[in-house]
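Expect chain and fold; thus:
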Amino acid sequence: MTTIVAIGCSHTYGTLLDGKQSSSLFNLNNSYAGCIAKKHKCKFINLSQPGGSNEFIFRVAIDWLTRYRKRDEDYIVLIGWTSPFRMETRYPEDSEYKHTVVSKIDMKYFPMSLGQGPKVARSRAYQKLHSICPLIFENTKDFDLWATYAYNLQQLFFKNKVKFLMFNTCQELEYTENNKTVIDALDTKYYIHPMKKNENFLERSLGKGFAKTPCWHMKLDAHLDYSLYLSNILVDLDYF
């Protein structure tokens, strides 16, 4: 049986999918990725995290590929790239602090992003980091990193003969003076519209008239619609 593995931020996680809760097993299992798994009768693993960065997505994908993938099983990995203006920080190993969310990953890591409230961090020292977010995040650097993560992950999936599909959840990738050759080397057969405006999950859903929550997440109807969109692409790739 094929297993769907989903890795992304809150949109792929399913945050507020039910319109009520941020993190829950229902939301985790009924995101657009979960709907695809149900439609095609696949096993489902959702390794996404609310607030997850592209750095997080790359790290978790590599971790899954090298430590948890079973070589005799069939997988389809769905990679939902997020805003570039996010990063990971980590509590010291010997500290009592952990990030609080329903997840199956190393919870010593926690996300930090522009516009995020400092209360996400559990310790006062890490809360202070949010005051310097505007200095940490810079367009060129962050788009360069995103392009590099996507290209390297594609090459690793190809090398290991793992089926995959990439897409954007809330923002498009952009050219910089450094990353053009990297972006041009991406295989867009397996990365849906990496640079096309209004084609990410959030903006595509809003453009189709689906209602968002106050914190810019989509509900079950939008997830069902996007699952059909992705499912058709996966069928065209002969994954099912």
User: Anything to note?
Assistant: The chain has a mean pLDDT of 93. The beta strands are 3-8, 43-46, 75-81, 86-90, 109-113, 163-168.
